[in-house]
C-alpha cells in the first residue's frame, strides 16, 4: 500500500508540473490535461514499450489516470486563487524523480536487462515524461540543458546497482539509490549546481 501511494504521489507531482507548463503556454483545458498526462506517465509508457511489458502500467491499473485528473483539477483551482508554490514543487519533483528512477531501474533489472540498460530505463522512467512535456511546450528538454536532473537519476541508479553487486539487500539498495537521486537533485537546486558546457573555439 505504501509503495502504491508513493507511486501515485509521483504521478501527481509530475502531472502538476505538466499542468503548470500547459498553463504557462496558455493552452486550453484539454491541452493542459494532455500535457499533465504525458508528463506523468510518458516515461513509464516508453519504458514499458521498450521492454515489451503489456499491458502498459496505466492500462492495467487506471489509478494513475485518476491521480492525473485530480492533480490537474487541483492545480487549476490553486493557480486561480493562490501563487504557485515554486519551492515546494521543486522539492516534490525531486522526490518524484527519485521514486520513478528507482522503480524504473527495478523493473528493468527484474526483466534481466544489462546494467547499462537498467540505468537507461530508470533514467527514462524518471525524466522521459519531462522530455515529452518540454518538446510539446516548444522548449529545450531539461535533460539537454545544464541542470543536474537526469544525471542525478543516473548517479542514484549506479549506486543501487553497485550495492546490489555487493549483495546488499534490494530494499536497502533501493533506499540508498532513492536518497542519492533526491539529495543530488535537491543539492543542485539549493546551490544552483550545473553541469559544465562546452563551446566551440572562436
Describe the structure.
The protein has one domain (2-191). It is built from eight helices and no strands. By secondary structure, it is mainly alpha-helical. α1 (2-24) crosses α2 (29-50), α2 (29-50) runs antiparallel to α6 and α5 packs antiparallel against α8 (170-191). Helices cover 76% and strands 0% of the residues. The model has no long low-confidence stretch (mean pLDDT 91).
Overall structural domain count: 1
Task: State the helical fraction.
Answer: over 70%
Structural class: mainly alpha
The topology string of helices and strands comes to HHHHHHHH
Overall mean pLDDT score?
91
Q: Give the DSSP E fraction (strand runs of 2 or more residues).
A: under 5%
Radius of gyration: 17 Å
Largest sheet: none
- The count of β-strands is 0
Overall morphology: globular
Indicate the low-confidence ranges by residue numbers.
none
Q: How far do the termini sit from each other?
A: 57 Å
Number of helices: 8
Membrane topology: Multi-pass membrane protein
Subcellular location: Cell membrane
Domain Glycine transporter: 5-77, 91-164
Pfam families: Gly_transporter (PF03458)
Compose a concise summary of this entry.
The chain has 202 residues and is mainly alpha-helical.
Keywords:
202 residues; mainly alpha; 8 helices; 76% helix
Present the secondary structure layout.
Blueprint: H1 2-24, H2 29-50, H3 57-60, H4 63-81, H5 86-110, H6 115-136, H7 150-165, H8 170-191
